[in-house]
Amino acid sequence: MNKRRMATVVAAGITVTALAGALTACGTTEGGTGDADGKVYYLNFKPEQAEDWVALAEQYTDETGVEVEVQTAAAGTYETTLKSEMAKSNAPTLFQVNGPVGLANWKDYAADLTETAIYEHLNDQSVALTGDDDAVLAIPYVQETYGLIYNKKIVNDYIALPGAAVSSIEEITNFDTLKAVVEGIQENKDELGIDGAFTSAGFDPSSDWRFKTHLANLPLYYQFQANGVTGQPETITDEYLDGYQRIFDLYIDNSTTERTLLSSKTGEDANAEFALGKAAFYQNGTWAYNDIKGQAVADEDLGMLPIYIGAEGEENQGLTTGSENYWVINNEASDADQQATQEFLEWVISSDEGRDSLANTMGFVTPFDTFADYLPSNPFIQADAEYTAAGKTAVTWNFTVMPSEEWKNGVGQALLQYAQETGDWSGVETAFVDGWASEYALTH
Question: Whole-model pTM above 0.85?
Fold first, then answer.
């Protein structure tokens, strides 16, 4: 039967469509039935992997003849895009949720994945998200890590200067030491040939998630640990927000960019500043490697430190590791499309093409037992492994229980006002604490 190959990317408001000529094929997927009457439409969350998913979809169609469409929402618009796409007659057969809170919004559309290959091959099946009846509704497909990416050469050049705060990078195990090193690098930035200790903390949608979500995870983590919180609490306190302020001040006061100019800076700006060797530190995660590699900073000079905020016991802290990327199959799709989607995902995690793409092209650490021979060479993943081997305790991803995107936006707006000196820190505290309570009430 004739099938066209189609893969679509929507990124930053631009649509790119890859079309190939008709091909005649009724192939079978690896371990599947090869029902070519079904098709796959994947709404992808991660813009940085948009082209990679298109290429993988094309490979699958070449092999099987099954149509796979991939769309990627622009940064910061996934939930809005998903709502719009799910209302269409040609809705996604495969979409993502960012954890238990995200699943709560979409559980009525989530097919039972208990009998699927992606559940069968999880190294730890307890990481899957389940519904009220214990049906498996969402499967994580990537474990990611973030922290303070750093340029070893720049930091070691600073250490070689007279009066350096430390004699080796290994001494940076808490906020006070990190602060001394960062301020020393900033003070000597001209001698070191850089523009600032930290990359710019931009506040457009391509960058602000690093601070209103990922950085905000740290005070939540320590608060939840101290108070034995599990799941999503109705309210939170201002506990550990002083640490949030300390680390944010360190970013914006020792940066390549004046704090009053941060509203105009993007994630691309921050990435370029680090990749071109113009800054020593860059808060981001394992996913940033593909954008950094092959430029001015050699792989052997790439490292990652935990994000320290001055909390008690942080010397034993590792990197921040978890997942907000869970696959969900749309139970409103036809049986044929659901079957085709299951088979596509099985191919992704079991074929050489799929595993090579996820591990080596996209740079993912995956939770599946099929990837034993596909461990990525990403130096940030290796840094995480070193912290784990040293017995450090990984910081969990608690931002998956943040009550809403509106809560994040409120915190982000307050952070920007604070950075631009048009607001004070009390505005951040109000957005953080009061905003949580009001958004929890609205969403429940």
Answer: no
